[in-house]
Specification:
The chain is an alpha/beta fold. The protein folds into three domains: 198 residues; 143 residues, Rossmann fold (3-Layer(aba) Sandwich); 176 residues, Glycogen Phosphorylase B (Rossmann fold, 3-Layer(aba) Sandwich). 53% of the residues lie in helices and 8% in strands. The protein contains 26 helices and 14 strands. Strands 1-4-3-2-5-6-7-8 form an eight-stranded mixed β-sheet. The protein has a six-stranded parallel β-sheet with strand order 11-10-9-12-13-14, with helices on both faces. Strand 13, helix 23 and strand 14 form a beta-alpha-beta unit. Helix 2 runs antiparallel to helix 8. It is globular, with a radius of gyration of 30 Å. Keywords: Membrane, Transmembrane, Transmembrane helix. It comes from Actinorugispora endophytica. InterPro entries: TagF_C. This is CDP-glycerol:poly(Glycerophosphate) glycerophosphotransferase.
């Protein structure tokens, strides 16, 4: 409960309090309605209730979702309002006459109409929920009409439930005056407005019936696959927050000389997928996916090990490859599940050695080194910063409590405090996007760090940036949102229809606006202001380019930063000797190792300031090749060659043993 209250925030809690007080006031007005003025108490409660409920609907606050979880959803609240109204009218002291029956009959008829509206709305949603979500696939032949506006499609039923307001107003008027006309007018007004809402929804219901059923849509998708003839598939399943794992491969895959296709399994991932010109096909149901023929696709790349991978792995015509979403010494990089793939592709020799040492069933001849084609945006060599900059980028706490998963809990605040105490050093803090989702201690450490950074900036008189830069960034965010964000005003089917083809100019605009955003942002922040950096911008690699030293954990962040050639430090929070730590974690071989109390930080800072004090410079150069592969040929070329070689093997296998396939 405490966690829920923290997530809701002050505004939502205030709204919830107003709603609760409103219903208590309604109850008080109902059961004291024989007393003078009690009706006005009821009226005051109604104003509070409708005001709070209308605010919830208008702002889309999460409080509505939590109320539903506790069986206090919109329908329950509406029925409670109407039940209390009947009680108030009945207890008002008037003889039971037509006014009372207008209220009773109006409430009953309104319930029936709202039930019918709910059934209509559910039918529209079922008809418009396609078995697939697509992007860059022309759905014109499916004749998908426009969907209902967002105020109907999103939470529309709860808005219609508020149309009992005239009914309550009429009942209050009748209780005050004993004139049945008020009850009649209120009941008729509620019924009329609900009928209008149903009339508005009807064209969308009739139009949506033209959309083909599931079998028809899947037949269309199969025909499209047959015409497009994909050669390389990128398959991904996960939560919406994990979309970054597939996003990192979009650019590299788009540069392949073969026809690519992105296959997703969750609608949330499709909504969070980065901008790409590659055709995207999201198929949530396993049976639908397994019914599709992806021929002549010969290679399928998997950025993550998830249970739903099995639905594509069962396809014997395709060679299946685990490419992961970053090389590191974490246990996830040697998952025994990886032996189900035909090949495992690693960045360099280090990945091969991890599997050899772990003995999890992945044979050496199944491993191919392809480099890290995503690292091109990382600058190499000195930054030229006038004020040395340290980036602290800890990984998240993970799904287990093993020591060393993250330095954030044991060392984070101490490291930041120590860095902030060093003159002539600027701190950038960029936590992992999953930070704190499992362990509250990580959230506490994160909040402590942000407090330390804010206090240091305040003490130094470092401003929050200029107003002109903020306006520029806001305009750039709007440009980026037009390209990156889905239009929330339309439903999923209409978005799939409208995103049938991406103009290459859109990609150019995105790249241009992103580059300009970063230029304005970094220029405005100056060289001394400490920063807490969260969200998609500025990106991790942009932070690399601004930093002279990285402090991180055992994660792919370290391996990627090694590409820059700059010094880095890792916090040893496992409780073992530094020598043993380096043996168990090859990425730490060229790292300055820190203790949770920040011991060892002085050596890392000295290496950052003075190249002659950088005792690990030569080790880093050797480690870069070991972890990420040789510089020549470049990683994109290695990646493309590996795809081509495996595709040809798959094609040969189909020719040699067609009966088995």
């Amino acid at each position: 409960m405490k966690a829920i209250l923290r997530r809701l925030g002050t505004t939502a809690l205030a709204t919830l309090a107003v709603l609760g007080v409103g219903y208590l006031t309604l109850i008080a007005g109902t059961f004291t309605s024989t007393f003078t003025g009690a009706v006005w108490v009821f009226a005051a409660g109604a104003l509070l209730v409708y005001g709070a409920d209308a605010y919830i609907q208008a702002t889309g606050q999460e409080v509505g979702k939590y109320l539903t979880q506790f069986r206090l959803g919109g329908t329950t609240r509406a029925l409670l309002r109407q039940l209390l109204l009947l009680g108030m009218v009945g207890f008002a002291g008037h003889d039971v006459d037509s006014g009372f029956w207008w209220t009773v009959g109006g409430a009953a008829a309104l319930f029936a109409l709202q039930l019918a509206y709910d059934l209509m709305l559910r039918r529209v949603r079922r008809l418009r929920q396609l078995p697939v979500v697509t992007r860059n696939i022309d759905l014109g032949p499916l004749n998908i009409p426009n969907g209902p506006p967002s105020w109907i499609a999103q939470n529309g039923m709860n808005r219609v439930l508020l149309l009992d307001a005239p009914l309550l107003a009429g009942g209050i008027g009748f209780a005050v005056t004993a004139e049945p006309v008020y009850a009649a007018a209120g009941a008729l007004a509620s019924l009329a407005t609900t009928l209008v809402a149903a009339a508005v929804l009807t064209p969308f219901l009739l139009g949506s019936r033209r959309i083909p059923d599931t079998d028809g849509v899947l037949r269309f998708v199969q025909d499209w696959l047959r015409d497009y003839r994909p050669e390389v598939v990128v398959y991904f399943s996960g939560s919406g927050d994990s979309a970054y794992q597939v996003n990192m491969w979009l650019e590299s895959v788009s540069r392949l000389p073969r026809r690519p296709l992105i296959v997703l399994r969750e609608r949330a991932v499709a909504a969070n997928l980065g901008v790409t010109a590659i055709p995207v096909l999201c198929v949530p149901k396993a049976n639908d996916l397994m019914a599709l023929d992806f021929d002549p696709a010969g290679v399928c790349l998997y950025p993550a090990n998830t249970g739903k991978n099995i639905h594509m792995l069962r396809n014997p015509k395709i060679k299946h490859v685990f490419v992961g979403h970053g090389d590191s010494d974490k246990i996830a990089s040697i998952n025994p599940y990886s032996k189900v793939y035909d090949e495992v592709w690693t960045a360099g020799e280090a990945g091969r050695d991890r599997y050899r040492i772990a003995r999890v069933g992945v044979r050496d001849d199944e491993i191919v080194e392809v480099g890290r084609p995503q690292l091109d945006p990382i600058s190499t060599g000195p930054t030229g910063n006038t004020v040395r900059t340290v980036l602290y980028a800890p990984t998240w706490e993970g799904w287990t409590d093993e020591p060393g998963n993250t330095s954030l809990i044991a060392a984070g605040p101490k490291l930041i405090a120590a860095l902030l105490a060093v003159p002539g050093v600027r701190v950038l803090y960029k936590p992992h996007p999953f930070t704190g989702i499992r362990d509250p201690r990580a959230r506490t450490a994160h909040r402590r760090i942000t407090t330390l950074i804010d206090a240091a900036n305040q003490a130094a008189g470092a401003g929050a940036g200029s107003d002109s830069a903020k306006r520029q960034l806001a305009l750039l965010e709007q440009r980026l949102a037009r390209v990156e964000a889905f239009d929330e005003r339309v439903d999923e089917a209409q978005r799939s229809r409208d995103n049938g083809r991406l103009d290459s100019a859109v990609i150019d605009e995105l790249n241009e606006a992103t580059e300009e955003w970063h230029r304005v942002y970094w220029a405005d922040q100056g060289s001394t202001r400490h920063l807490t950096i969260q969200g998609p911008r500025p990106g991790l690699y942009s932070c690399f380019n601004q930093s002279d030293l990285l402090i991180s954990d055992i994660s792919s962040v370290v391996a990627d930063f090694i590409f820059s050639g700059k010094p880095y430090a890792i916090t040893n929070c496992v409780g073992i000797s530094d020598e043993q730590f380096r043996i168990e974690n090859p990425t730490a071989k060229a790292a300055y190792l820190l203790r949770p109390d920040a011991e060892g930080l002085d050596k890392a800072l000295a290496a950052m300031r003075d190249p002659s004090a950088d005792t690990f410079a030569d080790d880093r150069r050797r480690l870069k090749t070991y972890l990420l592969g040789p510089e020549e040929p470049d990683s994109q070329t290695q990646f493309a060659r590996a795809v081509d070689a495996l595709y040809e093997r798959a094609a040969t296998a189909r020719v040699e043993s067609p009966a088995a396939l």
